[in-house]
């Protein structure tokens, strides 16, 4: 959090608590439109590319349930923040999250018929 505050101070930005009236839009920040985001989600992904994305996820994310991923990512921030690099890294994390979500959804759909059979079985006497 201190790194973010120092970056804001160097760039002359104030926190929302300091002054809502003084906030101005960041000119270099480009937010993708809803349509662009929808297109990204609907693009078919090559299974090999999907596996490579999943394999690129750090092992620490799979270590245990109490892992604090936000704290981990904040600790990895360099002392000098670069907006372009942050956006690229954010996009990488989004691709990883999308690949994992797709894999989980595929596994659920794959196992659904077995689940339905078990649930629909008559009670054993």
From TrEMBL:
PANTHER family in the record: SYNDETIN (PTHR13258:SF0)
Gene encoding the protein: VPS50_1
Region ranges (Disordered): 1-24
Keyword match Coiled coil: yes
Top-rank taxon: Eukaryota
Keyword Lipid biosynthesis: no
UniProt cross-references to Pfam families, sorted A to Z: Vps54_N
Keywords: Coiled coil, Protein transport, Transport
Descriptive protein name: Syndetin
